[in-house]
TrEMBL record:
Pfam families recorded: OmpA (PF00691)
Annotated organism of origin: Photobacterium aphoticum
The OmpA-like domain, residue ranges: 77-164
UniProt entry keywords in alphabetical sequence: Cell projection, Cilium, Flagellum
Protein name in UniProt: Putative sodium-type flagellar protein MotY
Length: 175
């Protein structure tokens, strides 16, 4: 039982919503000053309310500006593949960009740290940056918004960068 501290902790709210949606009443047990308290939640007009709530929730962006403004991806120059989590982040960033009319630019910077010659690192960093930029274009971002820059090995490898992979940093510039 939860205590009445002004804090509501709900773990696994979906079964509660499902029960109310199917016509059940839900009884919630609480403790107030060491005294049990039961609150009954009625299902009256609940389907209409939950439908409106879910419609609203589904229109929310998956990520906010603080989450999309600076993102890093690690790609192999020979096989630029993203993990499922990275695909999800690319999609979230693209949805955010499409929803805002204040985005001035999407900077896609490629970096490559390897033992290769400088010209090879520069080419590889451009390839991985172009790959990420093309994903944004596929997701509906105007190419005119995207600026691709290749840095080769000019900047040091970051501590999270896996060996043999290049780094692509995506930054959102907002008015």
């Amino acid at each position: 039982m939860a205590s009445l501290t002004g804090e509501v902790l709900i773990e696994e709210a979906a079964p509660i919503l499902d029960a109310l949606y199917q016509g059940d009443w839900v009884h919630i047990g609480l403790m107030q000053a060491d005294k049990p308290l039961t609150v009954a939640v009625s299902n009256v007009r609940f389907p209409t309310a939950v439908t409106a709530f879910l419609d609203c929730k589904n229109q929310l962006l998956p990520m906010g500006y603080r989450q999309v403004r600076d993102s890093t991806f690690y790609l192999s120059p020979n096989a630029a593949t993203l993990t499922a989590e990275e695909w999800h982040r690319i999609d979230g960033i693209a949805r955010y960009i499409r929803s805002q009319n204040t985005i001035k630019a999407v900077l896609v910077d490629g970096y490559m740290n390897s033992n290769a010659r400088s010209s090879v690192k520069l080419r590889q960093s451009k390839e991985i940056a172009d790959e990420v930029a093309s994903l944004f274009v596929e997701k509906g971002i105007a190419p005119a918004l995207i600026e691709v820059r290749a840095h080769g090995g000019r900047y040091p490898q970051d501590e999270n960068q896996p060996a043999g992979k290049g780094r692509v940093r995506v930054r959102i510039v907002q008015l």
